[in-house]
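Here we describe the complex-level prediction in full. Unlike the single-chain runs in Section 2.1, the two entities below were treated as one system.
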Amino acid sequence: MFKKILLATSGAPSTFGAARVAFDMAKRYGAEVVVFNVMGVPTKAFSQVVNDVRTGEEIEVDDEYRAWVEEELKSTFEKQIESVEYAKIVTTTGVPSREILRAARAEDADLIVMGASSGDSSAYRKGYPGSTLQRVAKAARCPVMTVHRETASYWGGFGNIVFATDFSKQAENAFKFALNSAKELGCDLTLFHALDISGKVLDQNDIEDKLIAARARIRETYGPLMGDFKDFDIEVWEGVPYVEIVKIARERSADLIVLAHHSRELDPELASIGSTLEQVILRAGCPVVSVSKPDKV
Amino acid sequence: MSKKILIVDDDQEIRSYLSELLGDNGYETVTANDGAEAVDIAKSEKPDLITLDLEMPNEWGPRFYRKISQDDALKRTPVVVISGLNAIQYAIPKAIASLTKPFEPTQLLKIVKDAIG
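The structure predicted for the assembly as a whole is:
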């Protein structure tokens, strides 16, 4: 399931959490890590002059510059590269999101691991994931794991997965990934639905009737797909979905959250990252996997 | 009867230092070098407090914490996180304190004394 992991990194500290998780997974589950770095964005088509992704400076890409970037990455992740059996560094130039997707296809990666944004500004950290993640999460054929807060990378392996569902068609692929991960890695699985009551004042009987109905719906929807897998719980409660997903993961010490990439828009080529997923990615205390396509679940 | 503290850290030097520091101040200490080993030791030794590193070779700190949280006999044991990583106060939010290495020994002793006497 996790044979090849593409770690998309700018080499900046904001990606260290993603690197810690990617290398730890490789060590634990015997995967290969492809450390993938887009050095810069060409200033003109096919130009040798690029804007360095880290500094924004115009750089002429030649062998010397490539070697320097590779050396930088090697020394940044030196200990981690040494700790795994298979790792390689791949560098290129181009638009980061497009190159990451291209590399994931070329390498036939089972999972892309990346940070949510390279920016350390509070606006980025609080507000929304960077455009690279948004584009990669939308178009990737494989699941995309995001490690945003550094503390999200302090787990070491997976043992307790929270799969959050809104019962959308897209959630089926996310469920398959969560279930297969739980089976393969010997994890507990919590199937969770947050009844969205934001901005509403509902009668309590009404709320509790809806909770009962949602529990039944989880059992009906996912129960028959469990096969012989028994280590799962069903949990439903009311609140603001992203708050409740982060909260259940924290309370249960979950080390992985799995969500669908989007719910409303049925055409995955058009749908942008869902607002709940966006907020969960930014706030979770563990890695978050978003699943958009069924190819690698 | 002296209070017992379980020290969980993969670094032998840190284990020795903490054992000495806490031992010199009247506490009994037991040590574990990994989260997996620490679960068994915690179950058999029933410590009054646990100092916990986060990143260890096999079982990391947060997963050890999850396991003891599910054990009725251990779930109320106070935990002090001691780690060299960043932003560790968010790693185990229910820990009574989080200290970043290198830490002030007097600060740790005060935390321990306030928690278990």
